[in-house]
Amino acid sequence: MRLSRYFLPVLKETPSEAQIASHRLMLRAGMIKQQSAGIYSWLPLGYRVLRRIEQIVHEEQARAGHIAMLMPTIQSADLWRESGRYDAYGPEMLRIRDRHDRDMLFGPTNEEMITDIFRSHVSSYRDLPMTLYHIQWKFRDEVRPRFGVMRGREFLMKDGYNFDLTYEDAMHAYNRHLVSYLRTYERMGLQAIPMRAESGPIGGDDTHEFLVLAETGESEVFYDSEITELTFGARRIDYDDHAQCRAVLEEFTSRYARTDDTHDEAEFEAQVPQERRRRARGIEVGQIFYFGTKYSEPMGATVVDPDGNRVPVHMGSHGIGVSRLLGAIIEASHDDRGIIWPEGVTPFHVGIVNLKQGDEAADLACEQLYAAVTEAGLEPLYDDTDERAGAKFATMDLIGLPWRITVGPRGLKNGVVELTSRRTGESEEMPPDQAVTRLAQIYAGKL
Ligand code: 5CA
User: Transmembrane region positions (predicted)?
Assistant: First the structure.
C-alpha cells in the first residue's frame, strides 16, 4: 500500500475524550471513529488489525476441530422466551419491533439460536461431539460504554458452542477450548492468564476468564506470580487427546489465579507464599463456560443415546472478545510515541520511508523494495508522501509497524538502507535485498 493513496486519518492532537492509552492511540492512528456511544466505524488501518485477529482465531479454531458458520445479528424474541432469558436479560438487551409488531432483538450472545439449529438437525449421539462457532457482531446496551473498543455496545465476538453426549465429553470440550485459547492469544503476542471466574448471565458451574494484565484493566485480579512464567510455546497438541488437554489445563490452572468475584483472601494466603502473591488489574479477553443442560433441556435439544434413550445434550460456550483484543494488545504493547504491534497482528509488516521523495535514486530503490517485500509474501506500507522525514517517522511510530526500512540518498551511495525495530529502536544498515531476506526470516512462522 502506498500512503499517498491510502486513507489514514491520523490526528495531531490527543483526543480529550479518551482516558486510556489504547483508546487514545486508536483514535490518533486513524483506526476507529466513534459513531455513537460505544459504537465505532473501523477505519482501514483498524479494520486490517481486526481481520488479522479474526484470521488467527479461525486458524486456531480449525486446529482444534471446531466448525465455522455464521448466525444473524437479529434474533427473534420467541427463542429467548423458550430459554427464559428474554425477561431475565434486562436492559442490556437491545429490543426491536419489526413492521409486523413482532418482538426481535439484536443478539448479545447466541446460546438460544445455536440450540435451535442443533435441535432442528441433529438427533443421534453419532453426530457428537460437535463444536460450532462464529465471529459476529453483538450488541449489549452497557450502562457505561468506555475505553473505546474495550467496552463497546456493538462489539465483535467469537462465540462457540459445544454439544456432547456426556459430562466427560463436555469437560473435554472445555479443556480443549482452554488449551486452544492459550495458543490463540500467544500468537497475538499476548499473555492471557486463565482465571477462575463467575458465570453471570450465561449461567453454569465451571468457567474461566482469560485476563491480560494491564493497569487500566477493569477487573481486579489475584494470582501466583509463577503463572506469568508459563508459556505455551511450540508444543504440539492432539486436541482429540483428553489426557493431553487436561494436563495442559492443569499446568495453566493449578496455581492460584482469580478475578475479584471469586477471590478468597484466606485461600490465597494459604496457597501462595507471600513473595509470590500478586494483586493487579486485568483486561478480560475471553471466557469459557460449561453449563450442561441449561439450554438443551428447556429447548428440547436431545439426541438418542447408544441405549436408545433420548437425552438432552451437554453444552458449553466459549467467547473471545475480538474487537476488545485490539485495545488489550495496545495496552500491553505501546510507548509514548505510539503503538508497537506484535508481528502476528500488525496491519502492515513493514513501513518503507523515503527520506527524499523525488530523488531519482531514492524513489527507484523504494519501488524496488516495495516489489521485493511484496514478492516475499509480506505487505509493506510505503510512505511516498512529500512530508519531511521527522513527520514520516512520527507517523510510522504512531501506527506501530514492528519494522521500518528507511531509504535515503546518502545511504544509497554506500549501497545500504536502514532496518529499524519499532520495539527496541535499534537500527542496522544493510543492502536492500538483505533487509528483505531478514524480514522474511522474522515473519516466517509468525503469519
Ligand atoms: N456466550 C458467551 C461465550 S460465547 C459469552 O457471551 N461470553 S462473555 O459474555 O464472557 O463474552 C465473551 C467476551 O466478549 C468477553 O470475554 C469479552 O472479551 C468480550 N466482551 C464482552 N462484553 C464486551 C463489550 N461490551 N465490549 C467489548 N467486548 C466485550
Answer: none
pTM exceeding the 0.85 threshold for the entire prediction:
yes
Q: Give the number of other CB atoms < 10 A from CB of residue 18.
A: 18
Largest alpha-carbon pair distance within the chain? 81
* Sequence ranges of the domains in the chain: 9-339, 350-443
Residue 29 CA to residue 129 CA, distance in Å, equals 44
pLDDT of residue 138: 98
Tell which CATH classification among 3.30.750.24, 3.40.190.10, 3.20.20.20, 3.30.930.10 matches the domain 9-339: 3.30.930.10
Residue nearest to atom 10 of ligand 1 (CA): 287
pLDDT tens digit sequence for 33-82: 999 999 999 999 999 999 999 999 999 999 999 999 999 999 999 999 99
Eight-class DSSP state of 2: B
Among 3.30.450.40, 3.90.180.10, 3.60.21.10, 3.40.50.800, name the CATH number for the domain at 350-443.
3.40.50.800
Pocket test for ligand 1, best of 89, 150, 324 (most atoms within 8 A of CB): 324
In the chain the first and final C-alpha atoms are separated, in Å, by 18
- For residue 26, which phi and psi values (nearest 5 degrees)? -65, -35
Rounded to whole angstroms, the Cα distance separating 240 from 242 reads 6
pLDDT, tens digit, for every residue of 85-97? Answer: 999 999 999 999 9
Question: How buried is 386 (Cβ within 10 angstroms: 0-12 exposed, 13-18 middle, 19+ buried)?
Answer: exposed
To test the pocket of ligand 1, the residue of 199, 202, 287, 322 to mutate (highest count of ligand atoms within 8 Å of its CB) is 287
